[in-house]
Design brief:
By secondary structure, this protein is mainly alpha-helical. The chain is built from 4 helices and 2 strands, in the order H-H-H-E-H-E. The protein has helices at residues 2-16, 27-37, 41-53, 62-69, and strands at residues 56-59, 76-79. Helix 4 (62-69) links the parallel strand 1 (56-59) and strand 2. Helix 2 (27-37) crosses helix 3 (41-53).
Length: 83
């Protein structure tokens, strides 16, 4: 049954140790970044979190990496291919 699968999936995520964060508080900054970078806001949510947390952003998204290289942001960015 679908509910059992949903419950199992949520339980797996909960036990995984992944630190989930709500996207809502990140949306205003993500929207600002999306406008500045001319990039989809859903990707920019992933940028807003490390900016807020003073953490590094790691991605394999080459289009986003190109856009970031053309802008001056206070976010440490790493290309996943370099790891």
């Amino acid at each position: 049954d679908t509910q059992d699968l949903d419950d199992a999936a949520f339980d797996l995520v909960r036990r995984s140790g992944i630190d989930l964060r709500p996207a809502g508080p990140l949306l205003p900054r993500a929207m600002d970044l999306a406008r500045r970078l001319d990039h989809p806001v859903y990707d920019c949510v992933y940028l807003a979190l490390p900016e807020r947390e003073k953490a590094s952003f790691v991605t394999a998204d080459q289009r986003l990496l190109r856009r970031l290289s053309a802008r001056k942001l206070e976010i440490a960015v790493t290309d996943l291919r370099s790891l």
